[in-house]
């Protein structure tokens, strides 16, 4: 828990004064009493990839906390100047060596329990033309396809909720086709 990225801001990033708190736009926020700078704590944007092959879901095992040793869809934070549908492809390439393209949004999943800050996980359906290149890399130390009935421990409730939504959609499709 002493990771630098997990610590609250202490000093004004504009002038270096120690931050206090002030009521701004309806809530107490970290604010600088010297230059007036207010810290608005907005959600981070994380992007995750849902890749299904032969009705099996691609998951990676997390090399780092939070959720180290557990499994999730390939994911990561978008850079501020990076469109999310591009961020998801970059994360896929880094963590699985697969070249993919985004094929629509599965859903948006809000979370407040990550020590690095609250955020929104955007889960995109992705398509891949060549899954033979699959290899774990970067923040993932293992990778594999899993049947929905044989999923390993999932690291985050956001990923679990997205997987549940995907499975509910599949079920609806099957029942609608009957
Ligand atoms: Zn300041």
Walk me through what this model shows.
The chain has helices at 84-96, 157-177; strands at 20-24, 27-31, 44-50, 52-53, 56-62, 71-72, 75-77, 100-111, 119-128, 140-146. With 178 residues, it is α+β, with helices and mostly antiparallel strands. It has 2 domains: 1-41, no CATH class; 44-177, Alpha-Beta Complex (Nucleoside Triphosphate Pyrophosphohydrolase). It is elongated, with a radius of gyration of 19 Å. The protein starts with 19 loop residues before the first strand and ends with a helix. Residues 12, 14-15, 17, 32, 34-35, 37 line the site of zinc ion (ZN). Zinc ion (ZN) is lined by residues 12, 14-15, 17, 32, 34-35, 37.
Approximately how much helix is present in the residues? 10-25%
The average pLDDT value, as a whole number, equals 93
The computed structural class is: alpha+beta
User: Compute the gyration radius: what is it?
Assistant: 19 Å
Poorly predicted parts: none
Bound molecules: zinc ion
Q: What overall geometry do the principal axes of the alpha carbons give?
A: elongated
CATH architecture of the largest domain: Alpha-Beta Complex
Tally of helical runs: 2
For the record, the count of structural domains works out to 2
How far the N terminus sits from the C terminus, by CA atoms, comes to 51 Å
Q: Helices and strands, in N-to-C order?
A: EEEEEEEHEEEH
Secondary structure: number of strands: 10
């Amino acid at each position: 828990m002493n990771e630098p990225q997990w610590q609250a801001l202490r000093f004004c990033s504009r002038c270096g004064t120690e931050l206090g708190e002030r009521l701004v736009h309806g809530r107490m926020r970290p604010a600088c009493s010297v230059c007036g700078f207010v810290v608005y704590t907005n959600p981070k944007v994380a992007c995750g990839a849902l890749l299904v092959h032969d009705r099996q879901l691609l998951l990676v095992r997390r090399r780092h906390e939070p959720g180290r040793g557990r499994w999730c869809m390939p994911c990561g934070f978008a850079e501020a100047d990076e469109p999310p549908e591009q961020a998801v492809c970059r994360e896929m390439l880094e963590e699985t060596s697969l070249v993919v393209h985004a094929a629509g949004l599965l859903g948006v999943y809000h979370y407040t329990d990550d020590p690095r800050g609250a955020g929104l996980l955007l889960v995109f359906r992705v398509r891949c033309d060549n899954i033979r290149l699959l290899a774990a890399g970067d923040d993932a130390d293992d990778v594999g396809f899993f049947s929905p009935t044989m999923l390993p421990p999932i690291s985050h409730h956001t990923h679990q909720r997205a997987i549940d939504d995907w499975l509910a959609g599949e079920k609806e499709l099957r029942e609608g086709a009957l």
